[in-house]
Write a structure and sequence with these properties.
By secondary structure, the chain is an alpha/beta fold. The protein has two domains: 167 residues, ATPase, nucleotide binding domain (Nucleotidyltransferase, domain 5), CATH 3.30.420; 183 residues, 2-Layer Sandwich (Nucleotidyltransferase, domain 5). Helices cover 40% and strands 18% of the residues. The protein contains 16 helices and twelve strands. Strands 4-3-2-1-5-7-6 form a seven-stranded mixed β-sheet, with helices on both faces. The protein has a five-stranded mixed β-sheet with strand order 10-9-8-11-12, with helices on both faces. A hairpin with a 4-residue loop joins strand 1 and strand 2. The longest helix has 25 residues.
């Protein structure tokens, strides 16, 4: 086990991310041997591969079979492609699962009982959970002997104070699981454990982490743990996203149902697929396209995106009791200098001041020397968190749960 080969699959409706790691001699996780992603699913698949070993990258490209993009076929083929590219069998395979419910605080070994419980949570994350679970089941059918582990986006947020997780609704509903779960927890967990290295010379006790991609959220990290987050019960909530609305008055939902005669399915589709940047701009959910447009609607979409993030940051700074550091991550957070600049300007009252030249150049460190709040940009890395869970469970295969 000390030199185990760990692979990860992060499976969704429009993309699959793959990573492969080899454990160090002391049993800790080593650097990634290979990373790959398949984007544009299901219509325009595009494979990207990165490795320090170019021969390994080439072998993976050569053997990765994308002729059938159904996860029930694709997931097992990707595991085989990994093993052919590396030249060794995978010891364990870790998966990202978006929703783990209220009682799962860490990674778990995949079992039939746990999978059945996770099926019941699909309505909480309909755009993610079914795809996550489909990949697990597909590999289990083709490789029943392979240990598979599950890492949960909701787990990192289970450390939040009870009041941060509650809605002001009848207690019986809260007790049944209608609470604020928070998401993107694997991304935030990775940031939290790296904070000492990310801010070696300045305070980071009270950190805001902004995971801004097609899905977007913000997490208040206090002394390495989640204490509040912008997302709540579902991954639709919080700030506006690519096609998701973010928070909306419950009364507006009731109005759409009762007065506009929209069906629950139509409202759900509108909030998940027709809102956010896409809905406001009328152009696209891709921020790059919206930023490049000169229409008033596109300008308003970007402005609203930034405004809502700044307002949510204010709320989370209050939950932290102040602010020491900000971390931008994920596709928009890593690549949009305009969004970063707008957020920094909106948080000037909190001591945020970034170097405009460094921001425009896409530097990792953005904060002005001597300013009160450190600001950095880091690539999102959910895969290494999945792999750490997987390696830990490989050494403790009794760790199971039914939720």
């Amino acid at each position: 086990m000390s030199r185990a080969l760990i692979a990860t699959l992060n499976s969704g409706s429009s993309s699959v991310k793959i990573a492969v790691y080899k454990a160090e001699a002391d049993g800790t996780l080593g650097s990634a041997l290979l990373r790959a992603s398949i984007s544009g699913l299901p219509d325009t698949p595009e494979l990207a591969v990165k490795s320090v070993d170019q021969d390994m990258s080439g072998r993976f490209r050569a053997v990765a079979n994308l002729s059938d993009l159904d996860l029930s076929i694709l997931a097992p083929r990707l595991v085989s492609a990994i093993e052919m590219a590396i030249g060794a069998p995978v010891d364990a395979l870790g998966h990202r699962i978006v929703q783990g419910g209220p009682n799962i605080f860490d990674g778990r070994r995949a079992t039939p009982e746990l999978m059945a419980y996770l099926d019941s949570l699909c309505p909480l994350a309909p755009d993610h959970q079914p795809y996550n679970l489909s990949a697990v089941r597909a590999v289990a059918r083709s490789r029943p002997e392979l240990l598979q582990t599950l890492s949960f986006d909701t787990a990192f947020h289970r450390s939040q104070p009870r009041l941060a997780q509650l809605y002001a609704i009848p207690r019986v509903l809260s007790d049944s699981g209608l609470i604020r779960y928070g998401y993107h927890g694997l991304s935030y967990a990775n940031i939290a454990q790296r904070l000492p290295d990310l801010f070696p010379d300045r305070p980071y006790r009270r950190t805001l982490a902004l995971h801004l991609g097609s899905g977007a959220s913000i997490c208040a990290i206090l002394e390495g743990g989640s204490v509040a987050s912008s997302m709540g019960f579902s991954a639709i909530s919080g700030v506006p996203m690519s096609t998701r609305s973010g928070d909306i008055d419950p009364g507006a939902i009731l109005y759409l149902l009762s007065e506009r005669q929209m069906s629950p399915g139509d409202v759900s589709f509108m909030l998940r697929k027709q809102s956010g940047l896409f809905g406001v701009s009328g152009l696209s959910g891709d921020l790059r396209t919206v930023e490049a447009s000169e229409t008033p609607e596109a300008e308003e979409a970007v402005g609203l995106f930034i405004y809502r993030i700044v307002r949510e940051c204010g709320s989370l700074i209050a939950a932290l009791g102040g602010l020491d550091a900000i971390v931008f991550t994920a596709g928009i957070g890593e690549n949009s200098s305009r969004v970063r600049a707008g957020i920094a300007e909106g948080l000037g009252w909190a001591g945020v001041d970034i170097d405009s030249a460094a921001n425009a150049a896409g530097d990792a460190c953005l904060s002005v020397p001597g300013c009160a709040v450190g600001v950095i940009v880091v690539p999102a890395d959910e895969e290494s968190e999945i792999a750490r869970d997987c390696l830990s469970i490989l050494g403790d295969t009794d760790r199971v749960s039914t939720g």
